[in-house]
Amino acid sequence: MQNLIEELRRDTQQLMQQMYEKADAEKATFRKYLVNGYDMLNLSAEVMDCLVDPILPRTGMAALVGTSDSGKSTLLRGLAMAVASGSKEYLGFRLCPKHRSAIYVATEDDASAIGVLMQRQLEELGTPKEAYHTLDFIFEVDNLVDNLDKMLEDRPRDLVIVDAFADLYTGPLNENNRVRSFLNQFSQLAVKHSVLIIFLHHTGKRTESLAPSKHNAIGSQGFEAKMRLMMELRPDPERHDIRHLCIVKGNYLSDEYKHDSYVLRFSSGLNFVATGERVPFGALKEQDADLDSRAELARAMRSEGKTLQQIADALGYKSASSVHALLNVK
Residue 210: its pLDDT value, please? Predict the structure, then answer.
């Protein structure tokens, strides 16, 4: 009888020990999802860590949007080239790469076409070809996220450019949840490898008549909402060699960066050069757009899934009710 009691006691102690160990493991698992505010403040830097100071963060997702033939691909390719070659600045902003390495995902051009364009750029820049041995291009986008994960694991990079978003995402652009779910995998990739991923995307039809805005991008708010920073590149209405780089969203930027464009000159060698000039966003929209054209544009934006308030913001109206009246213009 005594032996039986001792055996039961040992079994009970063993069971309790297993329960305690399981509880401790569950607590440890839970704690890893928590970040204490005090500890976080002690670890945080006083200023945001940037790849392009102060506009582009070192880690996360950003977007460059614009009309076709505005030079979006050229501008982003120039950024990748500047990162890989160790340039100290780009477009007048200080460049701070840690690895001097970038990946460019190209869905619209092949290696031969981009090689010709880069050769033309180099003739003007005067940079030796050897400077770009850390710039890699991807032209096959099957299993892109997995392949990027492996490449970033193999060699740390500062920058990944995806040109263009609409060629990768084949679902309905107006469905917020599906767009956000698609982008989540890239967001997790950016955080895992401490890299900046920039998406090239397009603006809607006839948005040239509007002031630059984060709402000008084609598709749902889901795309814009996932971006830490969003820029719009817009041709000058009068000067054919001038482009306006407009920061239309910047979660960590003050307003001084987000109301006036940065004026860039597009050189004959396919390079962008900062002029130092800035122009208010309001001066970049068509000033003579009549009521009918605004109504047509509002309907087009509505058909793309924009809310009344988003359309109001893009068109410069004070309220969604004004847009409602505009949609009813015959």
Answer: 84
Task: Give the dihedral sign, CA 92/98/100/102.
Answer: negative
- Paired tokens of 142: 């099957």
**Could you tell me how far CA 65 lies from the centroid of its own chain?**
9
Q: Count Cα atoms within 13 angstroms, Cβ side, for 78.
A: 22
Report d(CA 118, CA 74) in Å as an integer: 9
For helices 291-303 and 308-315, the axis angle rounded to 10 degrees is 140
pLDDT in tens, 192-219: 999 999 999 999 877 887 889 998 999 8
Q: Is 105 exposed, middle or buried (0-12, 13-18, 19+ CB in 10 A)?
A: buried
Asked whether the beta carbons of 228 and 63 are under 8 A apart, the reply is no
Of residues 207, 283, 202, the one with CA closest to residue 239: 283
Q: Rounded to whole angstroms, how far apart are CA atoms 64 and 167? A: 15
List the single range of 8-17, 241-250, 264-273 with lowest mean pLDDT.
8-17
**Is it the case that residue 12 has pLDDT exceeding 80?**
no
> What is the model's pTM?
0.79
Q: Specify the amino acid at residue 273.
A: V
Q: What is the mean pLDDT of the chain?
A: 88
Domain ranges of the chain: 50-284, 291-327
Residue 219's pLDDT is 84
What distance lies between CA 194 and its chain's CA centroid? 14
In the three-class reduction of DSSP (H, G, I as helix; E, B as strand; rest coil), residue 265 is classed as strand
- The position carrying tokens 């770009």 is 132
- CA geometry: angle 264, 217, 302, nearest 5 deg: 140
Q: Which CATH number fits domain 50-284: 3.20.20.80, 3.30.465.10, 3.40.30.10, 3.40.50.300?
A: 3.40.50.300
